[in-house]
């Protein structure tokens, strides 16, 4: 029947060939069970992603991503760190809040815990150190301070002749006792709170503070260590000299060109200005 013939032809036309009729490639083209090989050369570190986009007339955008190059990390030091790590032999000017190995050296020389930070305790201790050696007191390092500091560290001698804690305490006691006697009348030859002359007053005050002085102003001058006006500290003695150089008066230095003294009849013990440049200073 015509219908049957058409169906048969169509069935044959769309039938699939059998497996036996398929011709397979032979020889080097056969890749059965072959494992993929890896390239001997390492792949590039940078991964390139190219995205072609039609943007206003067919322009292409190429996006490239690559790892950051490996380079040595650089550290920027602050001025405080630069000073704090400067060579010791350069005598760096170290100050408050500096930090570093050189600061630790200063702290070890001052018998402080070396944390490497130039804090308040380091400033205060360094100021005491400078005072003890008669160096200008700043609390910071300078060439003179470095010279004495390195010497002290080498010879293990921290405090100078003026810096013992007992000395500082003693001068504080002197000033305290001197102020207690304000208003005491002047009396020639007086050595008690009923009345003082100049050397009687200084001798009494020093005795109350813990040290004994000779009786007269000249003898007291001979018994003290003579120091410069710049090195004088409140609580030291100040001696007045005549044109010939002999001592005729003594008082207790109060700092700032002032002194405590028993001046003359009719004037009680008081704090007053040092009225002349012909003075000398002494320390017990």
Automatic annotation (TrEMBL):
Mark out the compositionally biased spans (Polar residues): 1-19
Q: Which residues form the NlpC/P60 domain?
A: 168-284
Q: Which family does it belong to?
A: Belongs to the peptidase C40 family.
Q: Name one Pfam family in it.
A: PG_binding_1
The UniProt entry, under InterPro entries, shows: NLP_P60_dom, Papain-like_cys_pep_sf, Peptidase_C40, Peptidoglycan-bd-like, PGBD-like_sf, PGBDSf
Biological-process GO terms, alphabetical: proteolysis
* Gene Ontology molecular function: cysteine-type peptidase activity
- Where is the region Disordered? 1-23
Protein name as catalogued: Peptidoglycan endopeptidase
Q: Tell me the keywords, alphabetical order.
A: Hydrolase, Protease, Thiol protease
């Amino acid at each position: 029947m015509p219908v049957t013939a058409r169906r048969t032809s169509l069935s044959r036309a769309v039938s699939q060939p059998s497996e036996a009729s398929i011709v397979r490639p032979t020889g080097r083209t056969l890749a059965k069970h072959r494992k993929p090989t890896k390239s001997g050369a390492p792949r590039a570190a940078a991964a390139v992603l190219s995205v072609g986009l039609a943007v206003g007339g067919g322009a292409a955008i190429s996006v490239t991503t690559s790892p950051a190059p490996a380079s040595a990390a650089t550290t920027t030091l602050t001025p405080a760190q630069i000073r704090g790590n400067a060579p010791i032999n350069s005598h760096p000017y170290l100050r408050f809040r500096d930090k570093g190995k050189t600061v630790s050296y200063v702290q070890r020389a001052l018998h402080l815990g070396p944390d490497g930070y130039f804090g308040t305790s380091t400033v205060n201790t360094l100021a005491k150190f400078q005072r003890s050696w008669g160096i200008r007191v700043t609390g910071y390092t300078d060439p003179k301070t470095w010279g004495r500091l390195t010497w002290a560290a080498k010879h293990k001698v921290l405090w100078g002749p003026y810096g013992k804690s007992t000395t500082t305490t003693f001068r504080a006691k002197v000033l305290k006792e001197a102020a207690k006697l304000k208003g005491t009348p002047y009396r020639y030859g007086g050595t008690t709170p009923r009345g003082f002359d100049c050397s009687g007053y200084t001798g009494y005050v020093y005795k109350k503070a813990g040290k004994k002085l000779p009786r007269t102003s000249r003898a007291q001058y001979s018994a003290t260590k003579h120091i410069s006006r710049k090195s004088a500290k409140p609580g030291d003695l100040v001696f007045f000299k005549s044109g010939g150089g002999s001592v005729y008066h003594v008082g207790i230095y109060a700092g700032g060109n002032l002194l405590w003294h028993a001046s003359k009849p009719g004037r009680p013990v008081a704090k007053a200005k040092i009225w002349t440049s012909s003075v000398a200073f002494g320390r017990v």
